[in-house]
User: Which sequence fits this backbone?
């Protein structure tokens, strides 16, 4: 969005296929884990460095499946893919607190 002569101009934002699948997965979480897993698989097949999809995969591992090692793995991949994606820090910190690694969470 920008202004030109007082008028606000909106630019068309293209969503990648991976991000579109991530959005579908996000809207289904936590109500339909099968659908979420399928959409995330699609998202990561299009872009294996899609930080939102990796973060949501970590969230599922942590909250639904209680597989904390897998969750940390996905959060670390998300951080490498995009260190600016702030949700990853939130969920990784939550995970580290859950597993008693408070010093690492800080």
Assistant:
């Amino acid at each position: 969005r920008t202004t030109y002569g007082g008028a606000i101009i909106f630019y068309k934002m293209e969503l990648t296929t991976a991000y579109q699948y991530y959005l579908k997965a996000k809207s289904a979480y936590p109500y339909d884990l099968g659908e979420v897993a399928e959409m995330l698989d699609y998202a990561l097949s299009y872009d294996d460095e899609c930080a939102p999809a990796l973060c949501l995969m970590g969230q599922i591992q942590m909250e639904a499946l209680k597989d904390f090692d897998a969750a940390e793995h996905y959060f670390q991949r998300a951080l490498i893919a995009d260190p600016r994606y702030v949700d990853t820090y939130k969920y990784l910190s939550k995970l580290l607190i859950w597993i008693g690694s408070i010093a690492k969470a800080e």
User: Anything to note?
Assistant: Confidence is low (pLDDT under 50) at residues 1-6. Residues 33-46 form the longest helix (14 residues). The helical segments are 17-28, 33-46, 51-63, 68-81, 86-98, 102-105.
